# Entry
Amino acid sequence: MASRWTDPRASRALVLGWLAAVFGVSALADLRALGAAAAVSLLVFHRGLVRNVRRAARSAVPISVGLSAVSWLFLWAVQRTRPDVEPFVALALRTAVIAFLTFAVLDRVNLLRACEPWPTLSRLLVVTLAQIHALRLLATDSLQALRSRLVRKPGPRDVLRGAGGVTAAMVTLSTRNAREISDAMRSRGF
Amino acid sequence: MHVPDGFLSPQITIPAYAVWAPLWAWAARRHFGRAAVESLPVIGTLTALAFVIQTIMIPVPGGTSTHLVGVTLLALLYHPLVAFVCESLVLLVQALFFGAGGVTVLGVNALAMGLLGPLAGWLAWKALHRVNGKVAVFVAAYASIQVATLAVAGALGLQHALSPRYFPLPVAVVLPAMLVPSLTAAGLAEGAYTVFALSLLRKANLRGVTLD
# Structure
């Protein structure tokens, strides 16, 4: 099954199908229709189901459910009447179904291969993704270094005090790193 | 600040795509050709930095969330359209790999946060940079985030006007919920970050970094 999507034409078809599906789901406001769309999505993309449901549950769902819940409570407090809960549930479900579909499709296609016809875009994407990884590592390292220097748990004031130095290190180190990656890719014909 | 997938219907997202896609293609061709060889690593780094900054989101009731954007720096250093191309890339990476924002709302988010915001910031900087360089940069970043927030709130307000069942929050709730944190916290932080990052880039004396 995995090899089926390594064919560029099949990958492109899957990406187009996914785009049509997410726009289709984004047009739904009825809770029953959204429930049906969720069920169909789970059936069609059953391979890697647990992993993709977990990814959607960790990334998009907390924000959409949190926002829907807080907004509902906020409206209740402002209007002093209980707002209809259905549009808020539909809002959260729509976001969850679209996130699941996105992760399920990304599991099956190679995005960098899809960018092959545009070398500058590929280079910018690779440089950016590499820097995101490098910056996240640097931020984690800096926080751990701060923890090791303090006998107590670092508070927001400690983090703020160290933020200037960390940003300086991030910008200069990652710019040099980005230049090296960019030069290396250019020398390989990108 | 960005609108998540499912908050806007195709009535808004498809026209936004129709504006965003050709503009993005034109801007990418104009600013990312062979002439961009020198500046590409710096642009990549600043794009990644913008990405990292934008992942720290604070949910707000009635609106979506607030955070720094970080691309005004690209508009000031290079061009508002460079910021637009890079912010679109940030939003795409966030939508595809991290589930933030989304693919259906990419056009709306990119036009608000990548084009209108940085363009407003760039215009503010153009108007003020002869008076005081640092103040001009701070005001530009502050203005940029407010304009982007207004645009996002406007899109959500329009969605409510089109279909209250689809998006149940009226603009009277969305606008203050998004603007208050943006005016009091995110705008100031964005201004401070932009001034600081710009002074760092100047000190580092990197190839491809110029700001008169």
About this structure: Helices of chain B lie at 10-31, 40-54, 72-77, 80-97, 106-128, 133-162, 171-204. Chain B touches chain A through 61 residues (CB under 8 Å). The mean pLDDT of chain B is 84. Strands of chain B lie at 58-59, 65-66.
